[in-house]
Amino acid sequence: MDGLRVERDGGVVTLTIDRPARKNAITGEMWGGLAEIFDDLATRRDDRVLVITGAGDAFCSGADLTGAAAGDAPSGAGASVASMRMVGRAALRLHELPLPTIAAVNGVAAGAGCNLALGCDLIVASDRARFTEIFARRGLALDFGGSWLLPRLVGLHRAKELAFLADIIDAAEAERIGLVNRVVPHDRLFVEVDALAVRLAAMPPLLLAVIKRQLNDGSSHSMAEAIEFEDVAQALMFSSSDTAEAMTAFVDKREPRFTGE
Question: For the residues 143-164, what does the mean pLDDT come to?
Fold first, then answer.
């Protein structure tokens, strides 16, 4: 759809938010489009990794609020909640996506755009990237999962500081506080992201999906519940063809070839 571009290459899917003139701000229609793309990816066996980035010099400046600023926001609480549920649906679909996701943050990531990056499993940032939970400056609450994601990444007190003050932080500070995995020179961003995506695409997809679920759900489970899930998951892995291939390749001293079975 307009504003969202999907490309595939060797199991790596690249989703580009493509509205550079608006710093890749996301319209109401595009939230629904994102949810549909994530739903589609969850059903495609040949898609192994998702990379999300932005066109031009920005990652995503968040929701396009030009209509709201002009007085065109949904009227009434019911209409506003229905509109926001489209945003929440996209956030949840990204979180639940079984394949690993990488945010390639090439510029500003603000508001929902910041939380779109935080919702990915890994974040690689250009040294020109900037991050902000801009909501408070606009008189808005956190959305796109930010209230859940932010304290889990940087701790509760740091999350409150970022959300209350809505400051803009650079890539180096984002790395220092644990908001991103790594920062790379701007002209190396996609080289580094491509190499990481290729590594992940070569790994057993079922295994990565299970590990992702274990880590995502771990903080909401007791130790006993986590171990029960580990037991079942490990039994599933031992019955998979990819695990058998990994064991055989280890004995044969060669690189494994995973099929997703």
Answer: 97
CATH number of 4-201: 3.90.226.10
Torsion of CA 197, 199, 205, 207, to 10 degrees: -120
The answer to whether 40 and 4 are in contact (CB under 8 A) is no
Domain ranges of the chain: 4-201, 205-252
- Residue 148 CA, chain-centre distance (Å), reads 13
Rounded distance between C-alpha atoms, residue 111 and residue 121, angstroms: 18
Q: Which pTM was predicted?
A: 0.93
Provide the edge-to-edge strand list for the sheet that holds 4-9: 4-9, 12-17, 49-54, 101-105, 122-126, 182-184
Cα distance between residue 33 and residue 203, in whole Å: 28
Q: Tell me the C-alpha distance between 228 and 72, whole Å.
A: 50
Q: Give pLDDT tens digits for 180-222.
A: 999 999 999 999 999 999 999 999 999 999 999 999 998 888 9
